[in-house]
Amino acid sequence: MSMDHPPSRTPARVKDRPTWLISRTFARSSSLLAAGFESYGRGLRSYHYRLLAALDEWGPSSQADLGRGTGIDRSDVTAALSELESLRLVERSVDPEHRRRNIVTITPAGVEQLLELDNVIDGVQEQVLKPLTKAQRRQFIALMVKLLAAEDESSKG
């Protein structure tokens, strides 16, 4: 069997399947996101961004709540928060009501960094959605939200 086919070639029975298209779009967007953070994120990554965004929006939170709310594994949350803390972007303190729990708070420097990361994220969104018109972008986002809402509903039942 010959192995000299172009790597970008996709079998006809695969190329129009939503699962294939979603996975390829995910791979492209993940690559662009990683490159954006690499170039402009000052060593931070998307999980740092999610944690800072959650703290900015929700206020001080426990590490466990941050993990659940952002979809980041508990051990990864701890490591990421340690990195953010070393950069003075968050502060951790012992919860006086539950001495074994840490409460995490975003610092003013963390808010400033979050705003800079917003620009990185906005640039990546623009790259990902560049081929679409504004109306198509709104429709695409609405359809993805609908697909995810259906997933949330099926996991409850």
Automatic annotation (TrEMBL):
Residues 19-149 form the HTH marR-type domain. GO terms for biological process: response to stress. GO terms for molecular function: DNA-binding transcription factor activity. It comes from the Bacteria. PROSITE patterns: HTH_MARR_2. This is HTH marR-type domain-containing protein.
